[in-house]
């Protein structure tokens, strides 16, 4: 997949697609200018490259391509799936707000606002790097937040993450699957997300909607999120039920989100309305679910403005989380990957070479484990002792469950380096058998 602005279409189809998918992408271009000629040539070259690279991918139609690593770098972003898992940490102040809210239904709504936050970055259409087994990503966030994610399984690909501060605890196990449909890819967010508020002791379970990337081979690539979003308070039985409207013809309904906070007794208490790429509001409602005439509207979540002109469509949060300056994370941290850093610097040839090196090292590790008759053991997570599955969540067969051991928080505080130091692209070492590898 690739950025909508670097997708391949000629001048005429650009105008047509803008009309089909909304005016946000509509540009005023002089078709006789040198800039337009150069842009059309680049688009044509990109179209040829994309078609060539994907010519044999018809063999994968209907299959899960999540683990497929033989993907061209020109469709990738300098970011890993572990960093994508961490993007929910952008709006942690909303969980802090939830922890301080006395009304239980409004509290549930604030948690929903937090959970909607990462959808603000879902329009990015580039493919992140698949994490190496044992790779990690860590963040120290605002309000005392600490976050760590680890790649705990390679086949199937499974990531586990944990975050906490003095108000709440967040855990996720992510094992997404995909279905390749020829010119589109459906993404199924298989996994489990659990949130606990320390003050009330309430626990919440999130089941997000599906996504679909359109025109991954031909045309302007774009992403839609559609279907049901359910946030269940498993302690009380109350829930948030949202519906993400699928994009229709001429961009009809695109981004629309609506639903309610529903009490344990099944009564609609709060109306929720917004757009998954921009905001979410709440207001008191009647029994039919319609906002009361004099109801005050509260903005639960507002998507931060994105940087103008960023090649990959990164948010400010994503750019900052890619920055390795002044940090001293674990040797297994995603920022340390040389292939990721080379792509970030625009050195695609170096990135391709480094990507092959790290994948070959991973294969060496697997062979050595098989030779010794050993199994991989995650460093910071362990198989879950409690396999409880809440309504709508993936089963343990669909997604192995993992618990955070807590040892990272006590033994590996995220230490700082001199501001001039930069760990990005340096010292990546997630390996189990150090003797097989030379320190990068």
TrEMBL record:
A single cellular component GO annotation: cytosol
UniProt cross-references to InterPro entries, sorted A to Z: OSBP_sf (IPR037239), Oxysterol-bd (IPR000648), Oxysterol-bd_CS (IPR018494)
Natural source organism: Symbiochloris irregularis
Residue ranges, annotated region (Disordered): 323-379
Name of protein: Oxysterol-binding protein
Segments of skewed composition (Basic and acidic residues): 333-344, 354-377
Superkingdom of the organism of origin: Eukaryota
Alphabetized GO MF terms: sterol binding
Family: Belongs to the OSBP family.
GO biological process, one term: intermembrane lipid transfer
Pfam families attached to this UniProt entry: Oxysterol_BP
């Amino acid at each position: 997949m690739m950025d909508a602005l670097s997708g391949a279409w000629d001048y005429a189809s650009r105008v047509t697609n803008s009309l089909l998918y909304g005016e946000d992408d509509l540009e005023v271009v002089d078709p006789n200018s040198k800039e337009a000629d150069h842009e059309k040539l680049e688009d044509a070259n990109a179209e040829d490259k994309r078609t060539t690279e994907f010519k044999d991918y018809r063999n994968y139609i209907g299959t899960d391509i999540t683990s497929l690593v033989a993907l061209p770098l020109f469709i990738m972003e300098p970011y890993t799936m572990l960093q994508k898992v961490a993007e929910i940490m952008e709006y942690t102040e909303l969980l802090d707000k939830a922890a301080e809210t006395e009304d239980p239904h409004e509290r549930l709504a604030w948690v929903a606002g937090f959970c909607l936050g990462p959808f603000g970055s879902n329009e990015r259409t580039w493919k992140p790097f698949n994490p190496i087994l044992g790779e990690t990503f860590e963040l120290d966030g605002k309000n005392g937040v600490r976050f760590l994610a680890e790649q705990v399984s390679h086949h199937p690909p499974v990531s586990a993450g944990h975050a906490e501060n003095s108000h709440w605890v967040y855990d996720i196990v992510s094992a997404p699957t995909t279905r390749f449909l020829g010119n589109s890819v459906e993404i199924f967010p298989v996994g489990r997300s659990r949130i606990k508020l320390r003050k009330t002791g309430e626990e919440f379970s999130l089941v997000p909607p599906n996504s679909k990337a359109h025109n991954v081979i031909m045309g302007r690539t774009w992403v839609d999120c559609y279907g049901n979003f359910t946030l269940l308070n498993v302690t009380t039985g109350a829930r948030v039920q949202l519906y993400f409207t699928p994009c229709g013809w001429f961009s009809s309904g695109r981004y629309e989100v609506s639903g309610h906070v529903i009490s344990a007794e099944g009564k609609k208490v709060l109306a929720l309305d917004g757009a998954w790429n921009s905001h979410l509001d709440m207001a008191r409602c009647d029994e039919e679910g319609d906002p009361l005439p004099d109801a005050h509207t509260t903005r639960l979540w507002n998507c931060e403005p994105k940087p103008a002109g960023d090649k990959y469509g990164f948010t400010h949060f994503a750019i900052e989380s890619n920055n390795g300056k002044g940090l001293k994370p674990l040797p297994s941290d995603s920022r340390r990957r040389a292939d990721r850093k080379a792509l970030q610097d625009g050195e695609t040839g170096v990135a391709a070479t480094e990507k092959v090196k790290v994948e070959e090292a991973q294969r060496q590790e697997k062979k050595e484990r098989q030779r010794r008759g050993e199994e991989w053991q995650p460093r910071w997570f362990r198989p879950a002792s409690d396999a409880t599955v809440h309504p709508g969540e993936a089963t343990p067969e669909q997604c192995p469950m993992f618990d955070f051991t807590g040892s990272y928080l006590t033994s590996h505080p995220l230490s700082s380096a001199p501001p001039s130091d930069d760990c990005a692209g340096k010292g990546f070492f997630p390996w189990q058998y150090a003797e097989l590898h030379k320190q990068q």
